[in-house]
Write a structure and sequence with these properties.
The chain has 431 residues and is α/β, with parallel strands linked by helices. Helix content is 24%, strand content 18%.
């Protein structure tokens, strides 16, 4: 599972991005299936990852906020939830997390306690890229500097984090190649801080003068290079044909100012950004590759959600979910093996920030932001400009009622719950 961080929908070549080439991500798409309607369970970091890791809606178990500071025993993925790593470890797989965790900090919440045999990365929401072994570790609210861990041991490193994570991922694959394995490779690229690796600086077009955009594109170049290195290693070892790969972003790009995670990400042709239930915040780059099962150069328009990743992996590995933790996700195995296969499934979102709610059913989408409500036909209006609620009142009321029925089955948001998303969301749809 390769998770990018805050990657813009429109910044990769197969989605029309032209600022810098992304040949390795594009090649990954051409060798598998590119999914045009792939969604995350939440439009920002930790809840999105919790939904993917558990195969369940994070709303169901109350993990709707980023864990920053406070009582560490209460911060992070609830301890009564099982991850995909728990399931596969129990089935005999070697499991590893390389990169960003962001599911809690204390020992019970640590990756090694949540099914991962190996952990190499950072525990919080963001981290600097340029590593210097002579620098002291630093921690701020939600971000850390020079605090990379191997399991529970702090590391002293030199180099650039994207490359370091790729080295570690290849090392894990090489060490465990004789056994079944699962790797969750959670890059922090292209999340802030927008640092530039000397290895890619000369490849940023001189015509791009905005320093933030240059930093973002440098991180994207490094991410694409790393995908190329990773795929090259799999091919050299002959493991690429029998390895199921997911490439997904944890949420949409963050292209709004002022905003603490502003990274210039472009979500064209979608509207909205990270932190919003507009399409640009929740519909993300999504590629799946498995030559043994997936025809190359496929495109799927099937609506899917990151909680489907766990369900798909468990079916592929012939592992049954734990009966006490029924999955909300649906296995995508039929989508992988049968081009053009489609099934109906509604998607729901709830987000306390600005009281956002969303429900997609087919091409129709219900959206609520504070007290404003909308109905969009995404087949005609991916940018969500035309509010059709007055034109199709029955459809609007049906989708709204379905969202409320879903929400009634979820725990209520605590009155004292807070969300840490920096500045207020801008550019919501207007009447």
């Amino acid at each position: 599972i390769i998770f990018a961080d805050d990657l813009g929908y429109g910044d990769i070549g197969v989605h029309g991005g032209t600022a810098v080439p992304t040949p390795h991500i594009d090649a990954l798409a051409r060798s598998g299936v590119r999914c045009t309607s792939g969604y995350v369970t939440s439009p920002y970091c930790s809840p999105s990852r919790a939904g993917m890791l558990t195969g369940r809606s994070q709303t169901r178990f109350g993990h709707e906020f980023n864990p920053h500071v406070g009582n560490e025993s209460e911060l992070g993925l609830p301890l009564d939830q099982r991850t995909i790593a728990n399931h596969l470890k129990d089935a005999g797989y070697a499991t590893a997390l390389v990169g960003k965790w962001h599911q809690g900090f204390d020992k019970p919440h640590h990756p090694n306690s949540r099914g991962f045999d190996e952990f190499f990365g950072f525990l919080v929401g963001g981290h600097n890229y340029a590593q210097h072994r002579d620098r002291d570790p630093e921690f701020g609210s939600g971000h850390s500097h020079n605090m990379i861990y191997r399991d529970d041991k702090l590391q002293k490193l030199d180099g650039f984090l994207t490359h370091i994570f790729t080295d570690e991922a290849i090392s894990f694959i090489e060490r465990t190649k004789k056994n079944p394995w699962m790797l969750y490779l959670a890059y922090n690229a292209v999340h802030t801080p927008l640092e530039i690796s000397p290895k890619v600086e000369s490849r940023i077009p001189a015509s791009i003068t905005d320093s933030d955009r240059r930093g973002y594109l440098a991180l994207l170049l490094g991410l694409d290079d790393s995908i190329g290195r990773l795929m090259g290693h799999l091919k050299e070892t002959g493991a690429d044909k029998d390895t199921l790969i997911f490439f997904v972003s944890d949420n949409g790009g963050s292209g709004r100012k002022p905003y603490f995670a502003y990274n210039t990400g472009v979500n064209t042709p979608l509207r909205g950004d990270k932190g919003q239930t507009l399409e640009g915040g929740i519909r993300v780059p999504w590629i799946m590759r498995w030559p043994a099962q997936i025809p190359a150069a496929s495109i799927s328009h099937q609506c899917m959600m990151t909680m489907d990743v766990s369900a798909t992996i468990l079916e592929a590995a012939s592992v049954l979910p734990h009966p006490d933790y029924p999955l909300d996700g649906i296995s995508l195995m039929p989508v992988l093996s049968r081009p053009g296969y489609a099934f109906d499934r509604p998607l729901y979102w709830r987000m306390n920030h600005r009281q956002q709610a969303a429900h997609r059913d087919g091409n129709w989408k219900y959206l609520k932001v504070e007290q404003q409500e909308y109905l969009f036909d995404l087949s005609l209006d991916a940018r969500e400009r035309a509010n059709l609620s007055a034109r199709y009142p029955d459809r609007f009321e049906s989708l709204k009622a379905a969202w409320h029925a879903w929400n009634a089955g979820m725990p209520a948001i605590p009155d004292d719950a807070t969300i840490s998303l920096g500045y207020g969301v801008e550019n919501m749809p207007q009447r």
